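Sample intake sheet
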Amino acid sequence: MSTRVPRPVVGSLRESLLSRADRRTTVVVGEPGAGKSVLLAEATAGTPVVLARPRRGDAAVPLALVRGLLGPEVVAGALDAVAPEALAGALGVLLHDVLAARVVVVDDLHEVDPLSLDVLAAAMGGPRPPRVLAASRPWTAERYAAVAAFVGRVEAEVVQLAPFTDDEIARLVAAHRGCAREEVDPHEIAELARRTGGNALLLGASVRRGPVDSAAEYVTRELAALPEETRGVARAIAVLGGVGTIADVVALSGVAPGALAGHLRVLDDVRLLDPDGDLRIRHPLLEELVAGSAGPLEERRLHGEAARLWARRPERAADLVGALQRSLPLGEPWAAASLLAAAADAWRLQDADRCLALCDRAEQESVGEPEVSAGLLHLRAEARLHRDGDDGVPAAEATVARLREAGDWQRAAEVRLALINHGMMRFDVDLVGRHAAAIAEELAEPAHGGSLTWRARITRGYLAATYVSADPMPADRLAVIDAAGDLLHAAHPEALRVAAYAAAAYAQAGRDEEAVALIDHVRRHVDLDHVAHLVEYGLAGTACVHLGRLDIAREIFGTVRDLGRAAGVRVLEVNAEAWLALLDAWDGVPDAAASARRCLAAPELWPPLVPVASTAVLEAVLAHGDDAALAAAAAEADVLAPMFSVLPGVAFASWWLCRARVSLALGAVEDAAAQVEAAARAYGGSDWLCPLECVAEEVALARRVEPARHDPPAAWLRRPEIVAWRRALVAEPGALGEPDVLALPVARRWEVLLAAASRWRRAGRTSEARELLRAVRAGAERAGLVRVAALASAELLLAGGRRRAVGAWGLTPAEERVALLAAGGAGNREIAGALNLSVRTVENHMARVLAKVGVARAELADRLG
């Protein structure tokens, strides 16, 4: 007879399972032998299910469960095509399609590998998710932590399976004996409860075969009564773990094929075999005990023999790795190669601990094959660098030297790429620059060869490194790109990434036509149905930003964000959102700062995009914030200043310039000057993303010194389309829209025009200044740029423009100027900077204004009209 769990729990689970509105994940938790599997079987009786039964040790084999559900070919294809950070999401989409609206039973959830749990969680999203019922041993933060994370992520319902009560034990005994509940001796019940702890497995064994205190005692007693050959068959079945055939059992146990049926009948009679007819020991705990019943050496020998069986069957690759991890060293080349391949898979999944464990096991199998030795060196260096951080750098650099001495320059370059990625994540400019320069030299050697895919990966890694290297515009960057040849025009995903990086480099170097051609190539060939391809698509968006094609950039980043969100790939969603926040800030969108702050708080934000998100906050507050908001944003940004002060690159330079503009708005002119100098150190160019000369001139004018360079906005202002636009603006300020393509974002356009008009006013060109200032004020008001509009009003007054009505309150001209700026939302320091006054003078003017007008400052705008 089978032991049963309390009926109310079974009924509750079945009712929950059949409810259409209830699609929760339910995890039944209990100690080994508590009856979890029986509960799931009874709860799903009569319901078609997808049954997943992970084997003992599967938790050490990456994606073991997913391989069983999707097939090894599908998983292998995903490993080749999808970036590690996107893999769980991509496989989750595929698994959702397979399991949609179905009932999935996962017995022994604690034996599932962590990445498979991530994939299963991802599959729970979207419409018509599967209904998952699972059983697990109890978990803690240290034990079965992956199960705890899964349960929290999917918000699973947890059913705690309590031990049998005395009353339930009495009913169990009565049912076995065919007597009434009252006829069972209470002392017997108490003794059974004491010895078994109410454990369902031990209770069933005690009722049938006599009292036992533990599962180990039960297995030992049952096996001791069996012939030796039958015990050998039981051990073989336990080691195979339900995936072997009759022939495999014969091979492992050594019994005659004709005698096997008799041994199986004996094992079935003593209730060791699965009651559903599977060739498996009936309970995972019993399976573990039976496998080790002849001692650890015999168990490891049997696992080695099982590995020999699986080595001849490619479809059993995951089972092969599991068996090898529990076997004695076999000293076979195929064993070392299999473990090395599994270690490589673990590393591609960024599981450093698993990779290193598999490397250690592969080394036990290695008999000195050069390929295996080099592969182990390579994998260990990268995994230790990932796990140990900066402490792993010396060992990784030593590995590069050893691989180069061995003539394996391709693996040496792979380790260099790992060092570059490590340096980029920590903004270690020296480390990145050192290894980027070495890769550039090696890429120039045609004798090194390599496949297109491999050359694309190395070239892409080098190009990424040049954006965080000691030289902000390395001379050899364009040389490497120009020499890439076929890589720039191939449709392979890795080659498309090279093309996207190259497009950004060409745009930054002023080679716009080549940049546009590469962007078109990427957009034409990228497969947006493939999550991994969203990376190169996003890189094309970055190139569009460099070119000033902000409408195309917005379209690209919006697509990456939306598709990344749909696929559950948070890293893609967050990093695309950071760029969108900056575009929104440039366009004057009020909530851009909130969006950028959410990105800064997200752990998925890629470190090189931190300045992008921080700049978005500053730009948004410059457009819409008051003095208090500007001061708060400046304080937030200044936390990053010590790190950014030593980093080169256009994004960092842009951040420093934006920070300088905030300082100007707050009246901190000397701070702004120092920040412009930091921007010049970060990047000496002057493309649209980094308008260094424009800000430098504003700072010089605020300091009342002659700018070091000639009229910075002049080149931009002389562009034919800008000239035409300005003339139309002056003719009819409130009616004309903006040109389709400009070299500056919306808010910055008006700031540059305002700076130009201010310079003209100071130079005595008041008539030209007044015309442009009226256009700037109208355009800024239309764009919702309160600060710029207020500054334009003040400049217009200084240029002799018509005053706006301020009523008959007896205000002096100086007080009128201060009143108009304050009514427009400007703070005292902003007003002081705009009018070249001290803050104290502005405060005195404001006190007299408020006294004469008779309202609070917040009501000034309404009173002045």
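Comment: The beta strands are 26-29, 49-52, 103-106, 131-136, 157-160. DSSP finds 46 helices and five strands in the chain.
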